[in-house]
Amino acid sequence: MGNDSMINNSILDKASEIICIFDNTGKVNFLNSSGRDELGFDISKVCIRDVLPNLFTDEVDVTDFVKENLNKSVKSYAYRSNHSCFPVMVKVCLEEEQGIVYMSDLRDVENLDKQIKSMEETMAETIKSRDEMTANLTHELRTPVNGIKGHIRNLKEQEEDSSKRRKMDIVLQCCENMERIINNLLDFAKLENGKMVLEEQAFSLHSLIESSVAAIESLANEKGLDIKYHIGDNVPDTVIGDEFRLSQIINNLLNNAVKFTAEGHVGIEVFKTRQRKRDLELTFFVIDTGIGMSETDKDKLFKSFSQVDGSITRTYGGTGLGLYVCKQIVELMGGNIKVESEVDKGTTFIFTVNLHAEADGEEENEVTLDDLRKLLIFDQDDQAKEPFDFFAQENINKINDFIEKTVLCVELENWGKAEGFAASLKRIAEGGPQELSKLAFRLVMNVRKEKQDECRKYLEEMKKTIDLIQEAGAYSG
Q1: Phi, psi for residue 45 in degrees, rounded to 5
Q2: What is the domain partition of the chain in residue ranges?
Q3: Does the reported pTM lie above 0.85?
Q4: How many helices (H) and strands (E) does the chain have?
Q5: d(CA 189, CA 195)
Q6: Is the CATH code 3.30.565.10 the one for domain 197-384?
Q7: Superfamily per CATH, domain 2-105
Q8: Where are the beta strands (DSSP E) in 41-169?
Q9: Residues 63-85: tens digit of each pLDDT
Q10: Could you tell me which residues are beta bridge partners of residue 277?
Q11: Which of 134, 157, 282, 381 would you label with 273, given CA atoms 20 to 30 Å apart?
C-alpha cells in the first residue's frame, strides 16, 4: 500500500492542476508541485480552509462538505500564502477517508471570456457604425442620382438628335443601375439587423407580373430578346402579402436574366402549388437562355457580395448583393429559392412564397416540381430549336444593332457596357462564318484592354464582313 501511495503521489505531483489531499480535520497531507509553486504554502502548516476559505468556512464540517459535494464542480477562489487569490474550478473527491480537491486555473478562461465580450461589444459597435454609414451614404447618393435623372429626362424631351438621345438613354440606364445598387445596400443593412418587416396588404398579382415584365421589356428588346410571362389558370388575381418585396424579387431575377442573356428569351411563369383555407403557396419560374453556370459555381450565388466569377462583375456589373437579398426576402415570406443551370444553355430560378387568399379555398393536392415542369410553356431548349440564320435580314439587323451599341459605348469609353455588348456579339458570331467569329473574339480582347483605336478597327471590319454576308445572302436568294 505504501509503495502504491508513493507511486500515485508521484503521478499527481506532475499534474498541471493543483491537487490537494487532506484529512477529516482539514489538515493538508499532500500538495502537488503545481500547488506548491502557485500557492507558496508550507505543507506542514497549511489547512484546506486556508486554500479554499470560501468553500471550507469555519462553520462547515470538512467531512460533511466533502460528502455533500462529492464529484461536483464548483467555481471558487484559491488563496495563496500572501492572501492574494485567483479563480479556480474545484472538484471534490473522497478516497480512503481522505478528501481530495482538484483545482483548475480559470484565469486564462476568464481573460478569454473578457476578450470575447470586448470583441463582441466592438463588433456590435462596428456593425452599428457600418449600418449608420450605409444608410447615410445611400441616402446621400440618391440625391445626385435623382438630380441627374431629372435633368437628363428634361434634356431628352428637347433633343431631336437620335444619336444624342441614345447617349442620354445610356446615362438614364446607368442611373437606374446605381439606384438598384443603393436599394440593395439598404436592404442588406436591414436584413443584417433583422429590421426588415413585411407588409400585409391586398394587391393584384397579375398586375404585378405584367408591370415587372413591362419594366424590363425595353432593355430586353434593346438586346433583341423576347420576354414572356405565363400565369397558371388557378392562380388568383388578388392576394394578400408584401407587394413591394415580391416585386423586388421578381424584378431582380428578371434583370439578371436579361443581363446574362445575349440571345433567345427570358420568361417568368407562376403556378399555385398549395392552398389550405386562406394560406396560399405560389411557385415562380424565371427562365433564360443565357450564359448559364456550372454545378460547382451555384454555391456562390446566394452569398453576400459574391458572384460566380470575378470577371462577371466587370462584364455585367453588380455588387453580388441582389440574389443574397432575394434569398433572405423569400425566406422571410416562408419560401425557398433554388437554381437549375447549365453552362451556355441558360438558367432557371425557382422560388416559392407564402401569401394569403382573400377567402378560404378548397384544399387541393400539393403539386410537385416535376408536375410543374410538365406545365412550363417556356424552356431553355427553345434557343437550341431556333438556330441563328446569318442570312436572314432580321438577324443581320440584330447584329448591326449590337455593333452600333458597342461603337457608342466605345466612343463614350463606357467599357463595362461595351464588354457586355461585345460578349453578346461574340456569342452570336460563334455560330457564323469563321472570319466574323475571329473578329468578334479580337474585339472582346481589345475592349477588355480598353484599346479604343483597336476596338474601332475591329468594329469597322465586322460591319464590312456583315455587309459581305448580306450581299452573299441576297445573291444566293
Answers
A1: -120, -5
A2: 2-105, 120-192, 197-384, 393-476
A3: no
A4: 16, 11
A5: 8
A6: yes
A7: PAS domain (3.30.450.20)
A8: 73-79, 85-95, 98-105
A9: 889 989 998 889 999 999 999 99
A10: 361
A11: 381
